[in-house]
Amino acid sequence: MKQIDMIHQQAVENTKTKIMDDIEKFLGEQEVLPDFKEYLDNRSTYISQIWLNVWLTKSTNDFSKRDKKAFLSERGYVVEGVDRKLINKLFRNEMRDYEPFNTKEWVKTKTDEQSWEEQYHSARKKFLKKVEEDRLLEHKAGIKENIYQVAQTVLSDFQESAYLKIRHMMAKELRKVFNENQKFEDIDTHMLEERLTVIGSFNPDDYRTMADFYDELTGQIHQIASWGRFYFEYETYEFHFEKKVLEYFTQIAAEKILGSLNQQLLSEYEEVFEDKLSAGEVKRITKDLTGVYLDGFLFKLQEEYITDLMTLADTEFDVTEHRAMYERDLGERIRRKEEERAELERKREEEARMLEDIFGREYNPSLRRNVRYILHIGETNTGKTHHALERMKEAKTGLYLAPLRLLALEVFEKLNSEGVPCSLKTGEEEKPVEGANHISCTVEMFHEKDFYEVVVIDESQMIADKDRGFSWFKAITNANAEEVHIIGSKNIKSMMMDLLDDGVAEIYEYTRDIPLQVENKEFSLKYTKKGDALVCFSRKQVLENASKLQNSGRQVSMIYGSMPPETRKKQMERFIKGETSVVVATDAIGMGLNLPIRRIVFLENEKFDGTRRRRLTSQEVKQIAGRAGRKGIYNVGRVAFTSDIGLMTKLLEKEDKPVETFSIAPTSGIFERFQKYHRSLAVFFELWDKFESPKGTNKASLSEERELYEYVRDTEIEARLPMMELYGFLHLPFSSKEPALIEQWLETIKAIVADEELPEPPVKTASLEELELSYKAIGLHLLFLYKLGRKTEAVYWERVRTELSDDVHEFLKSEVKNYKKRCRHCGKGIHVDSPYQICDSCYSARNRKRADNRDRWR
Asked: Which of 521, 577, 785, 825 has the largest count of CB atoms under 10 Å?
């Protein structure tokens, strides 16, 4: 038999069954015997529809997609590449007229006058029986509803005495746990084979309330004995007690309800259900009702003191006596809670006073009113720094504060080359110049006790930086000078006016003499020209693009954040002298570097900010684009983008949002006051989190300090170092994202504590990555040497570091054209022009794995 014939026959049989069911239903509902013709008149359309529904459903479900396509192909349909839903629709249309089953004729053959009457009596009997069963069920439901209504009233009145009984039961159960059970180590409850380890007995004095008991024993198990061997129920004690309460309450509630029912309702129940009403049946009838009360009882139990319950366990239950005991315990508990609340409030007030004493008054700037503040406000590349430095050169003594070591080095060399002796001081190096009364240093090296005739503070918009901003705040508000020149972007003006109040003597606002012009054509690397600076946002992208350009015959300078400043300076000099025609750089190019750049090209419109990839801000676009168009060399500064030209142009033209907050960080004064209360850095970090910074300020996250602190917390290092000295080591400005540097930092701290020789920084030179990491390692070593006052040793390591920076420079000059991208999976080299981040082998392996997974899930 063909498959379609077999399915058709099954559909016919199903239809016959459904028609006979319909006849029985029709006959059962008639009070007198109807004619067969009457049935046909009423139901012929319906029974015909039965066939069509059964047949279409069964044929559609029982035939596979392949069989349906074969069937349709035989009838001339094109089925290849056709959607499954359309295949089903076409198939159902074909099935509608396929060998229809004549239901009306079949019914006539199955029925004569005698059988019709017999069918009627049988159907009517079944129908009346079902009606009676339904009536009885409705009666039973009514009796249960009456019982439920009584239960509602009874339980409402019973809940107080019920809780007293539950409280007494729980007291005895709790005493049993403390007397008989042992505590075990927490285990994974899914590991049933895991061996239990006893760690002692329960002690009621260890817990105040039942809630405390539950919290500590969340992972504990309940032990039971059975058949002479130990078995374990893997349940928490909290769940164990909840189950006990539920079992006990439902039992006493059922007994109370049963005793409250009148005799008429009990007799009616017995008559209808043919059995006496039991407490077990009352439990089932009122199950959802008793559950409503359970949560309230459990909540009240969690508030109970363990000591009260342990005392209660020895007292026989008497409602009057236990009510009096509960009211006494409750009153005492309320009194103790009030005392605890008052004590907590006292501690909060004490903590608030302590926070105010330690932190509160630190960040209200006590400006030196005899200082003349001069603001230099304007866009990038407008000569702000030049004008401020000219004034500093004229002064007898001067201090320049830079955001970067490279800028400090640049000003140091500039002043000395112009005949103004100037010393250099950063955390990693000191270069004293004989007879110098001027110093160029990084902003973190500012010391408020030193007096200068003129202080110049560069890039003051950095005051808003969440981690470094406080160094600018400290320098601006505590500068000990006759004149303080503050250099910043346009959006810092209102902040400075508010902060410095009437201390601002002069304001110079600068605008670009060289206009910026955005190119309307999307940039491609092949369009690179002499004087271009191509900007991307990772060292990897800088090297890849520089390699592509060098391999196309161009000489390229490179600038990126982790590059040694000396190398960066040499790379810049090559571009200035014309030895290279193009610069490829990260956004490090936007911070105070003056280069003869014709065009700034944004190779990317997004950057990773340490947390996520995001679109550049308007301020970032302007800061970088402003480097285009060196005055005296170009008449216009050009800016190009690789995509989204319209959107990026809007960001370039957008008015800057004013800086409204500045960052704050811990000071030596704060630490001195803190040590009146505590000596632990762990406590200090907690209090720093609790301290609410004043309006208009943002607290430094201290995230790097906290991460480093975890390496020394509760160790001999923390025990032996004074707190402020330890914090000074945590605060050293090095790249704490490098595991090798963290290890070096930790080993050096250990040596300091043990009064041993400091470990020498590891120096490796086999690759660019090793050279740069070695440079950073020596920089970290120098931070320690200068902090410890060991300047003689520092001179040697500065020389070694300079040699390393030369090696980096030479590598970039000669070897970057051989730079290879690395597969992010296996690390093998990839051609630099490849648009992909993985090699062909890894790509093929990944596709094979995906294909295998698809096959597995089919």
From this structure: 785
* Tokens 């189950």 -> residue: 243
Q: What is the pTM of this model?
A: 0.61
- Do residues 565 and 406 make contact, with C-beta atoms less than 8 angstroms apart? yes
222 closest CA partner among 254, 268, 259, 187: 187
Between residues 531 and 613, which one has the greater pLDDT?
531
Q: What does residue 179 show for φ and ψ, rounded to 5 degrees? A: -85, -35
Distance separating alpha carbons of residues 509 and 493, to the nearest angstrom: 10
Which residue type, as a one-letter code, is found at position 448? E
How many Å apart are CA 276 and CA 278, to the nearest integer? Answer: 6
Number of CB atoms found within 10 A of residue 294's CB: 15
Helix H, strand E, coil C: the string for 505-542 is EEEEEECCCCCEEECCCCCCHHHCCCCEEEECCCHHHH
Check if the beta carbon of residue 544 is closer than 8 Å to that of residue 832: yes
Confidence of residue 198 (pLDDT cuts 50, 70, 90): low
Q: How far, in Å, are 50, 382, 408, 766 from residue 390 at the CA level?
A: 101, 15, 16, 44
d(CA 684, CA 331): 39
Q: How far is the C-alpha of 593 from the C-alpha of 464, rounded, in Å?
A: 21
d(CA 217, CA 16): 65
Q: Residue 54 to residues 6, 11, 14, 16, 110: CA-CA distances in angstroms?
A: 14, 6, 7, 10, 20
Residue 426 and residue 786: Cα distance in Å, rounded? 10
Position 407 confidence tier, pLDDT thresholds 50, 70, 90: confident
d(CA 547, CA 833): 9
Cβ 536 vs Cβ 657: under 8 Å: no
- pLDDT bucket at 587, cuts 50 / 70 / 90: confident
Q: How many other β-carbons are positioned within 10 Å of the β-carbon of residue 439?
A: 25
Cα–Cα distance list, 651 to 380, 518, 639, 644, 712 (Å): 15, 12, 12, 11, 45
- DSSP annotation of 367 reads -
pLDDT in tens, 36-63: 888 888 888 888 899 989 998 988 888 8
Residue 501 near residue 472, CB atoms below 8 Å = no
Residue 588 to residue 624: CA distance in whole angstroms: 9
Half-sphere exposure of 673 (CA within 13 A, CB side): 15
Q: How far is the first Cα of the chain from the last one, in angstroms, to the nearest whole number?
A: 31
* Three-class DSSP category at 819: coil
